[in-house]
Model the fold of this input.
Amino acid sequence: MTDTAGSTALVTGANSGLGLEAAAQLAEQGYDRVIITARTNQKAEAARDALQTRTGRDVFETITLDNDKLDTVAAAAATLASRAGKIDFLLLNAGIAPTKEVTKTNDGVEATVAATLIGHHLLTMRLLEEGLLASDARIVIAGSEAARGDVPTFNPIDVDEFAAANFDGDLEAAIEAQIRMDPPAKYHPGNTYATVKVFAAWWAAELARKLPEGMTVNAVSPGSTPDTNAIRNAPFFMRRVMLPIFKFIPGMSHSLGDGAGRYLEAARFGPEVTGKFFASKPKKMTGPLVEIDMDHFDNPQGQRALWNATSKVAGGVDYPVHN
Ligand SMILES: NC(=O)c1ccc[n+]([C@@H]2O[C@H](COP(=O)([O-])OP(=O)(O)OC[C@H]3O[C@@H](n4cnc5c(N)ncnc54)[C@H](OP(=O)(O)O)[C@@H]3O)[C@@H](O)[C@H]2O)c1
Done:
């Protein structure tokens, strides 16, 4: 028996890469129910088969959920509500590396932010509304070193500056323009990805203020982990030349096990650790997981505006205060 025996985890984007590895590690570390989500039933079932074969444990349940289609997220929450049991660890891992040109969902949301934030917001609000999170639940959303602003070609935008220059300082309107990638917001793959991961950290900071005592939420970067499918959108040169070279440079990348292991490390943080962003040390891509306290993560007005814009874009879904 371990202290996770009898515990339930839910992992989004669990058919591939870090999500698949995290689901395996959770079962291996004693979780007795691991709910895995994928965008299609076929992918979810294939992942369950692979996980059962690897771990030898029959603890995986599947759910289909596509953050690009909010009705599937609402349906997933409804399905979960019809099943018994509360979730102890909610891992909002799904995400994409940015495409070269801007891509939008049918709801007019830029695809990187849709995958990372909007669907996850709706899912989390619905789980809270339905009372499906344990009183000491741990919520982790995938962050990235890119959000620090010290990784070449990944520069998060300065939201305050963007709002002042274009929206008379209205942060919420400025952030909604970024979420929808409507002019004057300008798409740039690296900068958009970095900005979205800052938003993930801000979202965690704002949600932490709302959660009941005992539950926590943090943004956690898995660190540079090349052996996933994230690079499918990357240019040929990056995929076939740069990344294979990175793998041989000490400190530039680590294994899938180490990357997913960071999520599980954060699931074990105490109740006092909440609303924070954890990643590799500044200017590092791997190594120990540390709290990042750079100035641009400490922006309470930006965090509130991000929350409001996210709630609006997710269909007017806000924190269920009656709970
Ligand atoms: N790998 C790294 O070096 C690294 C570094 C920092 C942060 N991260 C973050 O780690 C997370 C996992 O990435 P990964 O590297 O493991 O990539 P991956 O192998 O491509 O896995 C991404 C997962 O997210 C799912 N997904 C993508 N868009 C989705 C959407 N709209 N709705 C629902 N699910 C969606 C994918 O489903 P499909 O298979 O159907 O596309 C897949 O299951 C991401 O949030 C990424 O930003 C990765």
